[in-house]
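Supplementary Note 2. Why include the ligand at all?

Several targets in our set were suspected to adopt different conformations when bound, so apo predictions alone were not considered sufficient. For every target with a known small-molecule partner we therefore ran a joint prediction. The input for NDP is given below.
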Amino acid sequence: MTKRVVLIGHPVAHSLSGAMQQAAFDDQGIDATYELWDRPPIGLPDAIGEIRGDDFLGANVTIPHKERVVPLVDRLTEEGQATGAVNTITREGRRLVGHNTDVPGFKVALDKLIGRQKMPRQAIVLGAGGGARAVVFGLIRESFQRVVIFNRHLHRAEALVKHFGRSASHMELRAMPWHESIIEAELAKSKVLVNATSIGLTSDVSPIPGEVLPPELFVLDLIYNRTRLLRDAEAAGCIVSDGELMLLHQGAAAFTLWTGRPAPIEVMGRALSAARAGGLRSAEGEPTGEPQEAAAGAGASGPAGA
Ligand code: NDP
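The joint prediction is reproduced in token form.
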């Protein structure tokens, strides 16, 4: 029987995970298909019910469901529990296990961004959704001493801080209101900026004006494109990375969880690059028409997400 893995999100048409995972299944001779399921929040419980069937190896979960899916699975791994967010599901019989492979994916991306320099201790995170939770957990694990979270809806950032309460008791983890002047003041005290909002995913806008970016800041955008934020940051003299490496490594970890095999990471990386070069699509599935060549370096132009 051909096995199935699904990506559950809303929207999902922008996703490159299908190309990457299908290439890995094919390369390893695994008889499985990777399907994109666009399900709005109201359809999530039914989708989770469906993947309990024998034909499923598991699933990926993406925007906006990573937190909402937590109570729908039967067990959480340590990282799923610690973050309160799930991006990968495996089956144990009819029981579902929730994992968070964004955590190891973020670690690879952060290490690459910082390179040979000493790991900084202060960071700003824009966003408080499922992706931000993996980021904050990663920063806590890396022994950051001060992390400030800005989010459009402050209460969500406050809930995130509350969630991490005990694991962040040795450090300063704060939620602050999204005001440009406060962000600017905090940027002056920080070494790392992570964009974990979806601003820039479907249009060429930046969450913050380029003028507030100090030089020599490390800037990581989880969106796997050369976003406006990354272009502004580069122009300001910052060191930048997009989310491609995180995407690749969260995908590799998920592949291993579903199949029990090491992921063919080069194959997955090549499939990802080929999918990007083959024409990016917006979250709504419309071609963006943006040329790929403009994207050499930090990542491709045009919108995409996990
Ligand atoms: P969620 O839906 O859980 O969270 C979305 C976040 O973006 C929230 O903080 C939300 O703020 C904010 N946001 C969305 N639209 C706006 C807006 N117009 N103005 C201000 N804030 C806005 O999504 P995820 O956390 O799962 O994903 C966030 C981004 O990170 C996506 O672009 C996704 O593709 C990317 N990502 C990439 C990964 C990778 O492997 N490279 C892994 C994980 C995520 P509010 O709470 O106020 O609504």
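The pocket of NDP is lined by residues 63-64, 66, 102, 105, 127-132, 151-153, 156, 196-199, 201, 222-224, 243, 246-247, 250, 305-306 (CB under 6 Å). Residues 7 and 269 are 18 Å apart (CA to CA). Comparable summaries for the other entries are listed in the accompanying table.
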